[in-house]
Amino acid sequence: MEMFRKLDGAQTVDTLREMAANVDAIVTMLPESDHVLSAYETLLKSSKPEQIFVDCSTISPESSKKVSDMATRKGCKFLGAPVSGGVVGAENGTLTFMVGGDEAALKEASGLLSSMGSRWVYCGPAGSGLIAKICNNMILGMTMVAVAEAMNVAVKSGMEPNILASVINTSSGRCWASEINNPVPGAVEKSPSNDDYQKGFKAALLLKDMRLGESLAKEVGATTLLTRETVELYEEISKKGWADRDFSIAYKYFKEL
């Protein structure tokens, strides 16, 4: 809270109810489905009709639908709008929002979203944005593991990591996990790997999202072979005490095997 008090123009309040009673729009971003459901149970007790709520958490689609129904019953508008772009995107205001909910509400909230991101995609009714985000993060987790594995092979073969990164990032292997968040220290600038994986997207959160992907796949009868392998790898990473490190620490895991 102290960090927000120091921001120019920012005001802080002590309770969720106080916040809900004094603003026209609220944006939330919390780690788990239970956190979101609990927060909205409190927020909606002091909500006002036509108030707009935007939840940017990555949670289960069903949980987002529940919150949407809760808000609708109170006469409020709710959008499930998880984001992509990482810490760098948040700092630069270039996040992408994957939005599910009422399209008219999205038009009303577009100004608010533009203060945090550069792009949003309307994915469909409530829960749709979460489906898109979960599937995106399934790919994110799998590609990070692939990049970490391949980079480890190259480094152990004597190649400088920045050289391989420059090849990958101009070739068919190019991806966010290599170009922006490369798991090898020194391979690219500003990657969390350069700071001992201390900043960025926590491995615990990536594991949570991969498990959400497995749950969603099970619900719809889809096969997820690579997702299962990725879940198991990040479970091992968590056992090593690295759950709070950036998920690119997968490289360190391979390096130490």
UniProtKB/TrEMBL annotation:
Its EC number is 1.1.1.31. Keywords: Branched-chain amino acid catabolism, NAD, Oxidoreductase. It catalyses: 3-hydroxy-2-methylpropanoate + NAD(+) = 2-methyl-3-oxopropanoate + NADH + H(+). Pathway: Amino-acid degradation; L-valine degradation. Residues 8-124 form the 6-phosphogluconate dehydrogenase NADP-binding domain. One of its GO terms (biological process) is L-valine catabolic process. It is an enzyme of class 1 (oxidoreductase). Pfam families: NAD_binding_11, NAD_binding_2. Gene3D superfamilies: N-(1-d-carboxylethyl)-l-norvaline Dehydrogenase, domain 2 (1.10.1040.10), NAD(P)-binding Rossmann-like Domain (3.40.50.720). GO terms for cellular component: mitochondrion. The active site is at 133. GO terms for molecular function: 3-hydroxyisobutyrate dehydrogenase activity; NAD binding; NADP binding. InterPro entries: 6-PGluconate_DH-like_C_sf, 6PGD_dom2, 6PGDH_NADP-bd, HIBADH-like_NADP-bd, HIBADH-related, NAD(P)-bd_dom_sf. This is 3-hydroxyisobutyrate dehydrogenase. It comes from Cinara cedri.
